[in-house]
């Protein structure tokens, strides 16, 4: 799914359970005799709410993609804003979790275990999408980004907070002022700065999104003394907050399985009802009509031309080739011939032989 599909976080960044252990400043081993620190339920709840929001977005995206929803979930600015807000909250929580889990000294065993969860999940998503969507597979999605950002953020747990703030701005601001076609290529796109994003189902570039992780680090470090003790006193007991907290603690497995489950239900329904084909035809006719009329042709003639083109795509089975933009010479010849025939319907003179 594209960057606008948006993506998730999970309990790989320690909120606050497990032993404090570890030497101050980032070294040493973890002590098994240290008492476990209690979790902060409010952090688990926030993570659970975020993961549910992400699942809702993915559900709507899938329904749109397979023709059940008319709303343009992939490109409508309101949906894009919703998706990016979810992503920002996930990445901010990564920063929060790193400070809570390792701000007094990196507990390497716990850190690497969670890092391996992130990396393994990212690898699984790459392999899975490469098989299912080879033209738009995920090569640097949210899990890939989180695995990298966890490593990048470690020094910022200990440097002065003003440095954290300045570096966060250095990652967030540049994409607003700089772009270059070089970053359209997949090999460089994970950095950001593209003019046209490459085709992929999920892309979370380092610029500006690592800045969101650093904002989480910054806010947590600034509020660690005054705010966190107050948050620790919040102990929700209702079923709903406990449910959110449960999802927050198990968000990685939820993230990995929710989309396959959604697709296992939606894809067969789409095939049965033919919704994706119907939506694809509507999009083609709408786009063709608009392009034709903008060239000065009457609406009635454009309707005739576009309907002819639609029938030609169906008869010659050219839909996939046209949508991917990858046409063989034979397919291109068929497409050109269809275009000439459809043009002749509204301009019969095109069929007349040239004067000798």
List SSEs in N-to-C order.
HHHHHHHHHHHHHH
- Given helix and strand content, the structural type is mainly alpha
> What is the rounded distance between the termini?
56 Å
Beta-strand percentage range: under 5%
Tally of discrete structural domains: 2
Number of contiguous helices: 14
Number of strands: 0
Largest sheet: none
Q: Percent range for helical residues? A: 55-70%
- Rough shape? elongated
Low-pLDDT segments, ≥5 res: 1-29, 31-36
Radius of gyration: 26 Å
Structure in words:
This protein is mainly α and 356 residues long. The protein folds into 2 domains: 41-271, no CATH class; 274-351. 62% of the residues lie in helices and 0% in strands. It has 14 helices and no strands. Helix 4 (142-153) packs across helix 7 (206-223) and helix 12 packs antiparallel against helix 14. It is elongated, with a radius of gyration of 26 Å. The N and C termini lie far apart (56 Å).
How do you describe this structure in short?
With 356 residues, the chain is mainly α.
Element layout with pairings:
Blueprint: H1 41-65, H2 77-102, H3 108-132, H4 142-153, H5 161-172, H6 186-189, H7 206-223, H8 228-232, H9 239-249, H10 251-273, H11 275-294, H12 299-315, H13 319-324, H14 329-346
Essential attributes:
single chain, 356 residues, mainly alpha, 2 domains, elongated
């Amino acid at each position: 799914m594209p960057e606008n599909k948006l993506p998730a976080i999970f309990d790989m960044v320690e909120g606050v359970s497990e032993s404090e252990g570890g030497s101050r400043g980032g070294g040493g081993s973890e002590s098994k005799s240290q008492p476990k620190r209690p979790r902060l339920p409010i952090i688990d709840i926030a993570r659970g709410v975020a993961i549910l929001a992400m699942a809702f977005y993915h559900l709507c995206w899938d329904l749109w993609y397979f023709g059940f929803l008319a709303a343009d979930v992939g490109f409508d600015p309101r949906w894009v804003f919703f998706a990016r807000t979810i992503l920002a909250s996930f990445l901010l929580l990564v920063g929060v979790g790193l400070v809570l889990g390792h701000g007094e000294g990196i507990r390497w065993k716990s850190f690497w275990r969670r890092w391996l969860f992130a990396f393994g999940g990212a690898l699984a998503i790459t392999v899975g999408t490469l098989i299912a969507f080879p033209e738009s597979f995920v090569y640097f999605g949210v899990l890939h980004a989180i695995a990298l950002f966890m490593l990048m953020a470690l020094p910022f747990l200990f440097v002065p907070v003003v440095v954290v703030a300045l570096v966060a701005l250095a990652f967030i601001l540049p994409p607003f002022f700089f772009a270059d076609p070089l970053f359209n290529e997949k090999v460089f796109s994970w950095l950001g700065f593209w003019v046209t994003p490459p085709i992929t189902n999920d892309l979370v570039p380092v610029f500006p999104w690592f800045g969101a992780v650093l904002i989480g680090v910054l806010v947590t470090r600034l509020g660690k003394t005054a705010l966190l003790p107050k948050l620790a006193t919040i102990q929700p007991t209702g079923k709903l907050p406990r449910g959110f907290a449960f999802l927050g603690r198990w968000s990685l497995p939820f993230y990995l399985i929710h989309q396959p489950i959604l697709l296992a239900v939606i894809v067969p329904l789409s095939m049965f009802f033919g919704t994706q084909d119907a939506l694809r035809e509507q999009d083609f006719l709408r786009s063709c009509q608009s392009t034709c009329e903008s060239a000065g042709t009457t609406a009635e003639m454009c309707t005739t031309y576009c309907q002819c083109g639609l029938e030609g795509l169906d008869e010659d089975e050219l839909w996939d080739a046209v949508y991917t933009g990858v046409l063989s010479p034979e397919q291109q010849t068929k497409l050109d011939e269809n275009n000439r025939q459809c043009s002749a319907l509204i301009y019969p003179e095109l069929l007349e032989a040239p004067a000798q």
